[in-house]
Fold this protein.
Amino acid sequence: MNESLPPDWSTLQVASCNLLNLALPARVFYPNQEPYGTSEYERKLDWLGGMFRRLNADVTGVQEVWDEAALKAAVARSGLRPPQVLVPGAENGAEGTPRVGLVTRLAVESVRSIADFAPGEAVTVPEIGLHTRFERPVLHAALHTKRGQLLHVLVTHLKSKRPKFLQDAAGEPLEDRDDPRVVARASLRSLIMRGAESAALRGLVTDLIHRTRDPLILLGDMNDGPQSVTSQLIAATQAVAYDRQARDVALFHAYDVQSEPALRRDMAYSHIFQGWPDLLDQIWVSEELVHHAKFAIGDVRRVEYFNDHLHEGRDRARSDHGFVRALLRFRGVPAVTVE
């Protein structure tokens, strides 16, 4: 009599980390902020190294990196087996805005940095004009798991909610920033920009997963909650409720589809602004990693948030964001006994 054995699972840990302006010492990253001194920089490397060690992730998407060399130094402090560290655009120092990056132990097939929207995706922002590109380019990596499974990873950092005030070429304000109506208008500009970036990212997601069985993971600082309009522009999870075919191009919030719900905390958050917690840092997966999906090849076992430091006071040697980690499982071909 033949008897099927349980699936032969392999595991993969993935994480998303906003590092809060990781830059080399004496490096001016914003004109209105002091560069790191040697002592502060060393404290930041020690703290990040300890966090990377705790996370022990196979794939980590990172945000706010000004210098790839600084990220490599922080990863080295972890004492973990040396992974690949990739920050397109920051190899010799980023200019204008920090970059997103990838730290991984997996085999890398390809990495590309995507700055421009696809044709037809530009959006007009009031008083500014066409928004045609991501302020912080998206990173797309094609990786291979230990068993050779192709895995797409997108790392993103979308436009913040910070009001987009008008200013001249020298950076001087062109409007009264104390006027509530001006603040509302400036916040609208930011929302439109983040919405445009979300819609453009939706196009990238669709191109990668439509009519394929290759799993995709989105890691990033979305600067909005999982059920927000901008996040759902990217994920389109809500469409699944009335259109089963929408699953093929939908993304699922890892926290919502974890198969070990007993470990859920009462409240998940990764950022605190003026006393209010929010979940800006997120992990999303395609249906291939949703345990009850028809075409599942694995699942999200559990999701954890590393956010205790958010209650320890502001210190830029630490991050002002919590880090999120998900334990994924991939199912191998079940073994079968022969009589």
Remarks:
- The first strand starts at residue 3 and ends at 4.
- The mean pLDDT is 91.
- The chain has five helices and 18 strands.
